[in-house]
Amino acid sequence: MLDVQQVISELAKLAPRFLAYDWDNVGLQVGNTGWEVERILLTLDVTEEVMEEAIDKGCDIVISHHPLIFNGINSINEQTKTGRIIMSAINNKIAIYSAHTNLDIAPGGLNDYLAHLLGVKNTNLLEITDIKEHYKLVVYTP
Question: Got the DSSP string for 15-38?
Answer without folding.
Answer: S-GGGS-TT---EEEES-TTSEES
